[in-house]
Model the fold of this input.
Amino acid sequence: MKQSKNLDNFAAAMANICSHSLVAPGRALSWIIIANPTAGGFTISSRWKRHHAALKACMEKAAANPVREDAGPSRVAQNADPGRGSLGKFGLVLTRGPGTAGKVVKALLDEAAQSHTGKPFFLLITAGGDGTSLEALTVLYSASAAIRGSFAVLRLPMGTGNDGADGWELEPVLERLIYPSVIEYARALRLTTATPRKGPFLAFNILSVGLDAFVTHMTNKMKGKFPGDSYKLWVDIASLLYDRLYRVGPMEVSAYDDAGRRIENFNETVLLLAVGAGGHRTYGSHKWILPDDRNVCVVRQMSLFRKVALKGLFTTGEHIHKPESKLFNAHRVEFRGEKDILAQMDGETVLLTPADFPAAIDLTELAIPVLKGKERE
Done:
């Protein structure tokens, strides 16, 4: 009952803010909010209390803007809530498990394609963890450039980690709806393999292989069975078990710039390889794997003693100063090895076998329209 009340309050507050939004002035505004009701931002009391305060503060700020007569929930949002009805009228759609967010966005794209009158602008808001936004953006990525040109994405930090959200705190993210904003197109990451029909796989924050993918895999398997930050728990366990479960062998890595020129080529025993859609990226609940402008991090295999000694440095980004780490910028990274290895795409994992090599991680074209706030004086 308490969680249901939280969702009702969230839906009403978001509708209030969106109805006063300055996004896409001069065009009819249609919004949809895809929320995971089991996300920590709704279910953990301390987090919801903080989010509720942020929503209240943003409604007060939004009240300074006029109510938009041309704004309202999308048709898909209104039709997706046949049971309660109270959420759909505010533009909120709840996920019911894996696949829901993708289906909702597919329906929204169909709505956009069929909108011949007034050409509304669509505001796609996700309110969950990285999995919710991954599903939604994967489907949006498949749309034509013309359709995507009538969209803006805003990813609220309502999950546990929120590494793929547009900020770690709710209030500054919501302010992008209230104050003048711009649309900036972001790249995705694409993993391709040598195996037909295995991939491609997309990510929008970090795509990586090796130790961290194992941690993600085990965290997903044990989700709900361990209290607190299970990712941190599996980081500790992986330091001891990873080499026993997945034999770490040599990996040949070649990296290329956006002109196709090879800029790196080495064959070493690699513990993990992480590629970001840009620099300054975190994963695993704010672990700074890419703390500066460079978007690729390679960590070489090391002794158990060194793993235990260095694992805490990934929280602050200090690992980049250690000899086991190698960072650089690249547009494409090709790799191959002789052992099975796990890959993770924004928290979702897949097992790669020797038959899948060579595999490659590419930066895509600028494709995802993300709502950004303008600098305010």
About this structure: The mean pLDDT is 90.
